[in-house]
Amino acid sequence: MEETIEQPRKIELNDGNLMPLLGLGTWKGKNLSAEVCQGAAETAIAAGYRHLDTAYSYQNEVELGKAIRSKIQQGIIRRQDMFVVSKLWCTHHAPKDIPLCLNKSLTDLQLEYLDMYLVHFPVGLQKVENELFPMKDGMMLMSDIDYVDVWKGMEALKSSGKVRSIGVSNFSIQQLERLLTVATIPPAVNQVELHPYFVQSDLIEYCKSKNIALTAYSPLGSPGRSKEYHRGDKDPEKLLEDPVVGQIAAKHRRTPSQIFDFRLDLEDMSALKSLNRGWKVCIIEE
């Protein structure tokens, strides 16, 4: 008897498109070999993942494209079953460069359109050949292009049909407020770091009030992150090893990282929120 995979739950975005609630983030895939990265994505799709999150700067879109194409050819999925997200990198904020960045991602992913395209950061970098982080005299070369102007280019991409939904990543309340004053199309999503050590309750409530879906990255505290993201004695214990997380997991007879087949009650949520320490995984400190 053929095994059937349960379809993931979805949320309706403010533009009417549906996004699976659970996604596979591939940020760390750039640290893997091409074969391992592609194999991991194929395994995830076979296991039921239908939401894949990548970016121009992750440098793994060729491998993810091969994985998606492989599963389509095997009859495991159809293109319309997948929700693929990529991001506009900071060196491509100039009006002429925005479609170039998108087209590079589409080519590498072997796709005709993206389900979601995000502005990766609200700040830009100068474009210096193909460098992701252009530097001079030890300093990052910042650009003066306003993210409000970048958003106009994102709206044009949506109108072109190459992007189904558009959104932002790593935007604060103040940046979202400013963007919304000029946006013809409001962002469908704000993707930010979010986990029990970095709760961001104010941002959650703000996004709810504006009907902007908030996507959490590093929701498990990013165990196994690369060494440049470790901060010595400032680095707290791993989130999944926190006693409070362990107690809640034991209460529900689940592992600390398990997210299916049960619900957290108000007491659980209050306990998890109490772990907030304003600690971010995704920063590099001197």
From TrEMBL:
GO molecular function: oxidoreductase activity
Domain NADP-dependent oxidoreductase per the UniProt entry, residue ranges: 22-259
InterPro entries: AKR, Aldo/ket_reductase_CS, NAD(P)_OxRdtase_dom_sf, NADP_OxRdtase_dom
Site (Lowers pKa of active site Tyr): K87
UniProt signal peptide: none
Residues annotated as catalytic: Y58 (proton donor)
Pfam families: Aldo_ket_red (PF00248)
Residues given in the record as substrate binding sites: H120
Stretches that traverse the bilayer: none
Family per similarity comment: Belongs to the aldo/keto reductase family.
Protein name (record): Estradiol 17 beta-dehydrogenase 5
Organism: Bagarius yarrelli (Goonch)
